[in-house]
Amino acid sequence: MSEDSIQQRIETLRHQIEQHNHQYYVLDAPKIPDAEYDRLMRELTKLESEHPELVTAESPTQRVGGAVEERFDSVRHELPMLSLGNVFSEQELRDFDRRVRERLDVDTIVYSCEPKLDGVALSLLYEGGRLVRAATRGDGQTGEDVTHTARVIPAVPLRLMDGAPQGRLEVRGEVYMPKAGFAAYNKRAEAAGEKTFVNPRNAAAGTLRQLDPQLAAKRPLAFFAYSVGVVDGDWLPSGHVATLELLAEAGLPVCPHNQRVDGVEGCLAFYAEMTDKRDTLPYEIDGIVYKVDDYEQQRELGFVSKAPRWATAHKFPAQEELTTVADIDVQVGRTGAITPVARLNPVFVGGVTVTNVTLHNEDEMRRKDVRIGDTVIVRRAGDVIPEIVAVVPDRRPIDARLFTMPSQCPVCQSPVERVEGEAVARCTGGLICAAQRKEAIRHFASRKALDIEGLGDKLIDQLVEAETLNNVADVFRLDVPTLAALDRMAEKSAGNLVAAIETAKSTTLQRLLYGIGIREVGESTAANLARWFGRLEAIVEADQDALEAVPDVGPIVASHIRAFFDNEDNLAVIASLRELGVHWPQKKPQRTQTGPLTGQTIVLTGTLTSIKRSEAKIALEALGAKVSGSVSKATSLVIAGEKAGSKLTKATELGVEVGGEEKLAELLSLGKT
Ligand code: D41
User: Does residue 180 share a domain with residue 142?
Assistant: First the structure.
């Protein structure tokens, strides 16, 4: 690049960064993901360091942290609030650890490992045990006085416990908004037509910098202490972890997951553990902070520019990234639902490469206004399916194209129908449609249905296209010669598959009912139907009222079941299944489920980590319990997993017994005799 075009690129970057700074710090409404912002900033920093003659005092690189606004009094930090260096990989962490050990000339380091809360840093000054001032970090040297809003955060003690130092004690930590509070706040704001927040961190920052503490009080903020600034007297112990313990004794909230570990291996183990726990934590974290525990060692290491050499942040892979929409087309599901899907230029986000994301339905696609050619923010958090969060409007090319939903099924050309008031468009082709046949067979072979190992997606595609499989019963007509004649299918795997199909013939009524693909009949409803009726014939004959008597079956589900068994083709498929040797035990109807939990009404809420909620429900019902979706005075017990919300609150209000996963395990063990 010529000096001229470098100058130009630098100007463009500065301009873009300034705009994003404004969006972020002034409007609290960032338009691009952090990862993209970081890239712009890094590119600018790199260009400026290669061309120091082009650096200007106004460049965004010359300002660390946010803009200090005039709305608030400014606070000069007596001890600067340092920033944190970053590492992005195991290797970079090992390098960090090696540098620390070499500087100190020791073999191993004791570290404090802390989840890195995604909020905003806050300094709390206590004098005589009373909160006298709260300030944001600002640029590290000067922050804003936010005492008025910090005082309304319930987790911030206004007075410390007895025994806390009487001189000055400056506590530093992170203000954050718990996920549940964030979601609830946004939901309320949206309903009231007010401004919503893009993420919990922005919500925390925006709330802290509210002028009106009454408004701030309505937003659920919390706080964890993670270090100290000014401390009078000799209160301070000799290490970081001991300090956090003293802070906790003084009544300050300290993150319960913080852990003291030995060496870099301990750090990595903690990182892995928190990666697993991340989704179940009640607040957002974006990485792990490692700190050399010993203060003597910290002093010896000192700091470079504004970051300590004795601490670093190990960032999780970004959960939001930018990419462009290469195309939009539709997918046809098992029940004919036509779903628009965005084909993306591959993007690495949340630890995986994403190339397709569902747009759910036409209304959703229009609401987000996603068009072919658009630049979009893609998010993948934990194990959640990736989604398009929003379009970046400034980056829409002039030739961006709207996608119109097809009026004919792209697979079978049958008309597509969208029922008034329903969000989904459906192919009306039924089992004429190869796409629906494929999905129906996939579902039939899946683990919770007939569980046919080895009958994978590609194979099903081939077999349906060759018209070898026209319905689910045809699966049981497959033989070794037919399979072995297919592409990429060896005699041996053909043999294995035929054996798996043979095994699958011996099944249960529940699996059959689930697998056969009746609309709205999931695992749990299939289990209820099987238990209630005992025999398939009884279900085929049951009328609408008889079906509605089954626990959890309402008028809509009952009508889908009725429609399914009123269809001659479906009955013919079931007859073929039987003829081909598929069988299941006939049982007596179990209407009044009796067992050790008979008479108990149990509510499951929150995230269960040891068992899926749907499975727990089935297991509890099998023990005679009634599992209900809402808490009332009639509830005998509430099992609350992580992130339990309003149901837990209600249970506590009504004085209903509440148990955790241990209690659930205890109940389920009643069934294991
Ligand atoms: O949870 C956090 N976000 C967090 C941030 C933490 N657990 N510890 C931190 N420690 C520091 C030092 C090492 C400088 C005392 C931090 C931060 N700093 C920090 N937060 C924002 C800028 C720096």
Answer: yes
